[in-house]
């Protein structure tokens, strides 16, 4: 992995994470993360749309006039979201019913249009696809972690209803983490989503601030430069 690719991945997963840094897509992020499976399902759908929209925008960036680029980007994104919605209704009907309106609302996720305009429309296809994967993976990880934490605290389970996403074999992934059936109700209510996201942002900021600052390099003596 070259330095440019590494920088794109680091930007999407950590330095400029859509959920923790840019604070984009908060409506679905806070609404569907009552369980880990719901968060992961929406995260994967968003990753798919983000990656393919970046690919399409980058591949056609020389063909779309600047005056109509935003409507064209929105049309591409809406088409991809429609495809994802129809596929989920056909193959993942239970999960599609659970996520409901938040699958079509991927169209309004500012992360997707923002990456299309700020990155994919100015970079080659390889970089655009990498950026879509990195930004989508960063967003999906936030959804998964937040959903898993809220589910464990609120219900005492983890990966409940995993079969809705992965099939019947995934029932083995559904575990009772804590020895109770009813946890802290606040965790799975809307206020719990705000509290959980706030704690995640605070933890990230604490980790950044705990890193030692880079030490300045000592300047070379004047005599050595003359030599």
Q: In words, what does this structure look like?
A:
63% of the residues lie in helices and 2% in strands. With 227 residues, the chain is mainly alpha-helical. The chain has one domain. It has a two-stranded antiparallel ribbon. The longest helix is centred in the middle third of the chain and has 31 residues.
Number of strands: 2
Low-confidence spans: none
Count of the separate structural domains = 1
How would the global form be characterised?
globular
SSE order, one letter for each helix or strand: HHHHHHHEHEHH
Q: For this entry, what is the oligomeric state of its chains?
A: single chain
State the major sheet: 2 strands, antiparallel
The mean pLDDT is: 91
List the strand order in the largest sheet.
Answer: 1-2
Could you give a short description of this structure?
By secondary structure, this protein is an all-alpha fold.
